[in-house]
Write a structure and sequence with these properties.
heterodimer; A: 164 residues; alpha+beta; Beta-Lactamase; 4 helices; 49% helix; B: 193 residues; alpha/beta; Rossmann fold; 8-stranded mixed beta sheet; 31% helix; 29% strand
């Protein structure tokens, strides 16, 4: 079974740093990191105008469907996807086989620049995520904060919100 | 599996509503969407056909609020129940933290329930998971219809060792909907702790 993703402070800041540099280097509007299961990891840029939860879920679904298409024609994976709109475009890459890096950009930049800069960021993020995954596999992750007390409070909150 | 971000203090878990086509999975999610306080729910996304049959999935994020400093969120998904959409079902189960199996109580849908239950086990296997490893709750839906299988019979076939909690439901009226959701959410968070 694949472990869940646990992200800790130091890794999180180095991830954020990498995507911020990508945003600035490409003049893109938004950069998002999403896990392949559809959960948002982090984002940068002007995310106020998009529903990031929906975006994350649909990006993961898009990638999952396209992966199946790839395998139907004998490819292991399409590691990048590009969706072109009238004003806005979306460039999506896979990081360490488990993370989706999505760049939303308009005509202030070019696909070529986004592609080149994204490649560098993907390589950088792969290092960080592979380290992060190996930490989780080695069990070097403290989960003290998610304890029985957490379970008890959560249970009360569920009753309160859903009636009970 | 749940995504825990210790830096941004977020926990996201994935709950999948599984079951035969036209069994009421989407109706469950739509009822939840209609009744929840707008401040805790996100947008309901349905990738459906023109005839309102689920094509890929329905998706509804529900925010539980901050628990011990963690912003805790459930992502509710349904799968398309129709037999030929198995590739989609398999994809949606990826990373599942909890399952609600929505069975159709009508006598004529008895076999479809079984088929879907078997299909769930096969698809879990594809992700190196099994029923014992993922929290699950059963919902026996459509209890208001005249021609239905008894709960005992449904239990005998789907839950013979009484391993899973079950709820009787009439999803369009909301009967059993929140009870089911509450139980699976609690089980998922218990599994995290």
């Amino acid at each position: 079974m694949q472990e869940g993703i646990n992200i800790f402070e130091q890794d999180f800041w180095s991830i954020n740093d990498a995507i911020n540099r990508l945003l600035q280097g490409t003049h893109a509007k938004i950069v998002l990191l999403i896990d392949r299961e559809g959960q948002m990891i982090t984002s940068t840029g002007d995310t106020s105008r998009i529903d990031t939860s929906s975006f994350a879920t649909l990006s993961a679904a898009d990638f999952a469907a396209t992966s199946q298409l790839a395998s139907l024609i004998g490819e292991r994976e399409f590691s990048t996807l590009f969706h072109q709109g009238e004003k806005e475009n979306l460039y999506v890459s896979l990081v360490a086989n488990r993370i989706i890096l999505a760049v939303i950009f308009d005509n202030r930049t070019t696909l070529g620049l986004v592609r080149v800069k994204t490649r560098t960021t993907v390589a950088e993020l792969e290092k960080t995520f592979r380290m992060l995954f190996s930490k989780v596999q080695q069990g070097a992750v403290a989960r003290k904060e998610i304890d029985a007390d957490f379970g008890r409070i959560a249970e009360k909150e569920i009753d309160r919100l859903f009636g009970g | 599996m749940a995504l825990i971000n210790y830096a941004s203090r977020e926990i996201n878990s994935k709950i999948v509503f599984y079951g035969p086509g036209l069994g009421g999975k989407t109706t469950n999610i739509k009822y939840v969407y209609a009744k929840l306080n707008p401040s805790i729910k996100g947008r309901l996304i349905s990738l459906a056909t023109e005839l309102d049959r689920t094509l890929f999935f329905d998706f509804l994020p529900v925010d539980l609020g901050t628990i011990k400093g963690f912003n805790t969120r459930f992502h509710l998904y349904t799968v398309p129940g129709q037999v030929f959409y198995n590739a989609s079902r398999k994809l949606i189960l990826k990373g599942v933290d909890g399952i609600v199996f929505v069975a159709d109580s009508q006598i004529e849908r008895f076999d479809e329930n079984l088929e879907s239950f078997d299909n769930l086990q096969e698809n879990l296997k594809a992700h190196n998971l099994s029923l014992g490893k993922v929290p699950m709750v059963l919902q026996y839906n459509k209890r208001d219809l005249p021609n239905i299988t008894s709960v005992e019979e449904l239990q005998n076939i789907l839950n013979p060792r009484n391993e899973y909690r079950y709820f009787e439901a009439v999803a369009p009226q909301g009967i059993g909907v929140f009870e089911t959701l509450k139980e699976i959410c609690k089980q998922v968070l218990k599994a995290l702790a």
